[in-house]
Amino acid sequence: MVFLPLLALSLGALVVPVRGGVTYPDCTNGPLKSNVVNSPGVSRLGLSAYQWWNEALHGVAHNRGITWGGQFNVATQFPQAITSSAAFDDPLIERIGIIISTEARAFANNGRAHLDFWTPNVNPFRDPRWGRGHETPGEDAFRNKKWAEAFIRGMQGTESTHRVVATCKHYAAYDLENSGSTTRFNFNAKVSTQDLAEYYLPPFQQCARDSKVGSIMCSYNAVNGVPACADPYLMDTILRKHWNWTDQNQYIVSDCDAVYYLGNANGGHRYKSSYAAAIGASLEAGCDNMCWATGGTTPDPSSAFNSRQFGQATLDKAMLRQMQGLVKAGYFDGPSSLYRNLGAGDVNTQAARDTALLAAEEGIVLLKNDGILPISMTGSNSQVAMIGFWANAADKMLGGYSGSPPFNHDPVTVARSMGINVNYVNGPLTQSNADTSAAVNAAQKSNVVIYFGGIDNTVEKESQDRTSIAWPAGQLTMIQRLAGLGKPVIVVRMGTHLDDTPLLSLSNVKAILWAGYPGQDGGTAVMNIIAGLTSPAGRLPVTVYPSSYTNLAPYTNMALRPSASYPGRTYRWFKDAVFPFGHGLHYTEFSVSVRDFPATLSISDLLASCKGAAVYQDLCPFQSLSISVTNTGSRASDYVALGFLAGAFGPAPYPIKTLATYKRLFDIQPGQTRTAELNWKLESLTRVDQNGNRVLYPGTYTLLLDQPTLANVTFTLTGEEVVLDKWPQPPT
Ligand SMILES: *[C@@H]1O[C@H](CO)[C@@H](O)[C@H](O)[C@H]1NC(C)=O
Ligand SMILES: *[C@@H]1O[C@H](CO)[C@@H](O)[C@H](O)[C@H]1NC(C)=O
């Protein structure tokens, strides 16, 4: 068939708010075999309307493009990315991507979803106030790159046809919903070239250049004065040209109403004087598809076209990219094509349920343990108080952009099914003067108290940032009362950032676990860990900041490096963490050592030996790191090997340390020694100069294993510095 994009009206309906799903058109038979196509649907040709807006951040979700019901009334709901990221297990992330895309494809094959999904969210979690941080893999650019790599491979597959099209969002430097009168619709993120190239963009480089993701979403905010969805520097110079994201089937979609808010809309950027001019600016800058939601007036691209706000060639290109994206996903192929056999039997399988539970168990982080965990909840500990707002509330465990899970395994239900005598009392979330008497009574008749608190996604959510990261006062009062009874208290914290300092000063708070948003089987995961049926080995993918941080770091300050009273951001620069990035205790002890590593390597040898091995020099493999890990304690456990780099090389100031490589090792038995190879690439050794160039510098490097450091090795790179990625400079 011929792809001759039709002009005008087709564009006005790029996001069609249809109810019900898609019927695949058939290009191998019937009229479409020799005809042109467009996006709002042409029934004569067997083309139904296509809804581009489908969500699946951690499982097929409830949203416009997806119709739940019948045999498709549930889908696997994995932990949010912040929790699965804490597992530091990228093969697991790929398996999650495979399951989500398999279920998504099964929905689509049955007319209940479409073929492109607006996932993953890879913006680094820069500020602890951000309401959408839990959708992301955390605060570290390298971690987010690796998470995105594994997830996209799972979602899109490795065949020539995409299983579904993944969409990396939100391009770029989007990590603020609202801070006073500054909102995501009008925020102008002022970002230095160095921070842009080093921190805000690498996850998108991974998506575009290295993972060849099918789609990228431009964000609401402006970057250095230009709204992202109208920025040719971001969308053309960097994304398409520098990252070679030039396949005909790769397209940019705007966040919903982003184009509206870059025009003359109230509350927006007022970057253009009319909606028509905004549409033109966005399309001409390289955006291909405009989503609008409810906030905006319906866009009228036809009149924008007629008033010459954008040209025919631009329209043709945009249409072609989207249609080719659907071609790449097999949308026009016949019923016997790849993935078309997936159906209801491929949704909510036992393997999917097992993976959702495993992801929650692997992602839970043991923040503190005075030796009380694991605990037997039988015999002398047979009465267990379970207190708090999510002890008995399974839906809380899902977080934003969720679908319907197959079951409700909250902690209380799971504990009862384990035969534990539970004394359950609900608790406050944000209420400050909650009555604690029922909770105290339950605790008094119990041997041990488990408190399920923190925050949920009514507190941190899309379009709602926080102003404080202190524990809510009512919950703190409750924990203090419970800790004052002389019984051991275990705190299980959900949600993202809270400063645990006040809990650490309570001697009866014997253990703290962080679960984030653990997904459909989070209750089972938490209880399995508390009972010792599985051992915790997750590591924090964020810094736990003191609550004073929100006074020291203005939310709108995008700078990563500290200066004067400004404390800097992330573990790379911030020195006074309550718990640092990478923190996570075990039920056992490990010792680690590095096996012989060369003391000196020459930069020219490294590059010479890479000839032909990688298209881009930053992807050249580096000497793999051979480590030896011994479980010196008495319980079997996984172990996440984290390798950080530190050293005075490259441009000052120098970061405290930078994550360079990692690997999760499984089920190391007491007394057992395991060896492992940690692979890394030259990118992990580079630093970024003030012009954004990624440079390999000569100097002395220290590889630090684990957090806190258990072993280190020092090596020297000799020779001249080499730019591995020359950064395109912004327009002046
Ligand atoms: C750019 O992308 C195209 C298409 O994916 C590919 O064929 C080509 O090798 C890439 N060029 C580089 C330098 O990677
Ligand atoms: C590296 O290990 C040596 C002992 O082998 C120790 O003296 C030194 O303090 C360590 N350095 C760092 C930065 O941890």
TrEMBL record:
It catalyses: Hydrolysis of (1->4)-beta-D-xylans, to remove successive D-xylose residues from the non-reducing termini. Pathway: Glycan degradation; xylan degradation. One of its GO terms (molecular function) is alpha-L-arabinofuranosidase activity. Its EC number is 3.2.1.37. One of its GO terms (biological process) is xylan catabolic process. InterPro entries: BXL, Fn3-like, GH, Glyco_hydro_3_C, Glyco_hydro_3_C_sf, Glyco_hydro_3_N, Glyco_hydro_3_N_sf, Ig-like_fold. Residues 1-20 form the signal peptide. The keyword Signal applies. It comes from the Eukaryota. The keyword Cell membrane does not apply. Residues 639-709 form the Fibronectin type III-like domain. Keywords: Carbohydrate metabolism, Glycoprotein, Glycosidase, Hydrolase, Polysaccharide degradation, Signal, Xylan degradation. Belongs to the glycosyl hydrolase 3 family. This is xylan 1,4-beta-xylosidase. It comes from Chaetomidium leptoderma. The lineage of its organism: Eukaryota, Fungi, Dikarya, Ascomycota, Pezizomycotina.
